[in-house]
Amino acid sequence: MLLDPNPALLNSLYWITLIAVIVSSASGVLIAGFKKFDLFGVIIIAIATGLGGGSLRDMLLGREVFWIHDQVFFIASLGSAIIIFITARIIVISHRFFLIPDAAGLATFAIAGTLASLMMGVPWLIASFMGVMTGTMGGIFRDILSNEPPLVFHSPLYATVSWAGSLLFIALLYIDINVTPAAIIAGTAIFTARLLALYFKINLPKFRFK
């Protein structure tokens, strides 16, 4: 499935990615804050979280890395980090609050990754997995740098809802739904499913020996 990269499509990808960078960077800041990192450490974690997944996607697809091509994304990640860093000194933020921007970043980056891949002519199944990787790798980088087990490997339905949402997005495009409403529907589904999985503690079966 090849999507023609017309101006409207490129504009949709731009704004979805920008939102993803901002919310994902915010989740990185909160994790770094709970670890009592200094400002530089907070910024590094935020940038790794907000830009890491998309960077890996672009390198695998042979695209110019998005935030190097357009520094607005780097500035957005940096700005998000500094704003949350200051805000956390003014108001009390719960340890669990980071799960909300994390879920929002997962949803928006999954859609952005899938859309970018489809625009490169990548087969639909691989495009959906690129969405998963874009949505989850920033969080993996965040957790590794914070010396935490990656959330994606043990938290309720993390990559699973990302992949399901990416496939839903592709299915909506196949039935000729416009990109913007398709992205809103699939992104909202990922975000909602992730929060519901957390609330009801829904997990995939874990590996165990008999």
UniProtKB/TrEMBL annotation:
Q: Where in the cell is it found?
A: Cell membrane
> Which positions, given as ranges, span the membrane?
12-32, 39-60, 72-92, 99-118, 157-175, 181-200
Q: What is its main location?
A: membrane
Membrane topology, as annotated, equals: Multi-pass membrane protein
The record places domain Glycine transporter at: 14-88, 100-172
- Which keywords belong to this entry? Cell membrane, Membrane, Transmembrane, Transmembrane helix
Among InterPro entries, the record links this protein to: Gly_transporter
Keyword field contains Amino-acid biosynthesis = no
- Which PANTHER family is this protein grouped with? INNER MEMBRANE PROTEIN, UPF0126 INNER MEMBRANE PROTEIN YADS-RELATED
Protein's name in the database: Glycine transporter domain-containing protein
According to the entry, what is the taxonomic lineage of the organism? Bacteria, Pseudomonadati, Pseudomonadota, Gammaproteobacteria, sulfur-oxidizing symbionts
